[in-house]
Amino acid sequence: TIYFPAGSRAFIFQEVIDLGGEPITSEEYTGLGRVTEFKYGKFLGEAFRGNNELQYLRNFGEDWGMINRQEALVFIDNHDNQRGHGAGGDQILTFRDPKLYKMATAFMLGWPYGFTRVMSSYYWDQNIVDGQDLNDWMGPPHDSDYNIVSPTIRPDESCGDGTEWICEHRWRQIYNMVNFRNIAHGTDVSDWWDNGANQIAFCRGNKAFLAINNDTWDLDETLQTCLPEGTYCEVISGNLEGGVCTGHSIEVAVDGTARISIPTNAADGVIAIHEGSKL
């Protein structure tokens, strides 16, 4: 078929809800294939919601009690815990927290731990009573005969125009970070920087650079990007199209450093550049 060409194999993973202290553990299933690591989204939700500082993410992974990175399937949220079910509780980030969600997803896709899964959701009106959403059962957009309504696609490739599809996977800030991850694949984190609180930055080898500001004050620093000298299209704010950047650009000096500025009121709170975004 179109989606499964001849010779293709299914990607199989196992869902195990294990936040620690469970009678059934993730490690019991890793011998069969990848396993969902629910602690991942919980920990990142806590950090980006301000209940833990981003500076501590410098060793995010096995040192946090999560399973081996080669065995983990990781995600910010899924269809259950974005409704308050499953694991993670009110720490889970969803499309309803767009700025924090984009920052957490950028970190996930920029960090070399696990096999990442990007969420794609639809909107529903919440009805919160005693801390529980009584509308958590609601299904996807549909017509009067309950046929699912297809999303309409805007010129910028996002979903909209009257449907309730969220389509996080079509947000520029997310799909460009998928490309970032592919480009950085096989490289380690280097030149970690933090301000002792909630501003962080790091390189992925000499291929990519990411910076995040989740503080209540501006980030304005000269940081090592590990990239060759040149002008780079910043891929959170725009795309590189026909040799032209539709967003901001960043100048990397001959020594690999660049002035990195992320105001606290920036729309996304993240900047990302990589070898493929060089102008």
TrEMBL record:
Q: State the needed cofactors, names only.
A: Ca(2+)
Residue ranges constituting the Alpha-amylase C-terminal domain according to the UniProt record: 190-278
> What InterPro entries does this protein's entry cite?
A-amylase/branching_C, A-amylase_C, Alpha_amylase, GH, Glyco_hydro_b
What EC numbers are recorded for this enzyme?
A: 3.2.1.1
GO BP annotations of the record are: carbohydrate metabolic process
| Family matches, as SUPFAM superfamilies | (Trans)glycosidases (SSF51445), Glycosyl hydrolase domain (SSF51011)
The catalytic activity, as recorded, is: Endohydrolysis of (1->4)-alpha-D-glucosidic linkages in polysaccharides containing three or more (1->4)-alpha-linked D-glucose units
> What keywords are assigned to this protein?
Carbohydrate metabolism
What name appears for this protein in its UniProt entry? alpha-amylase
Origin species, per record, is Hirondellea gigas
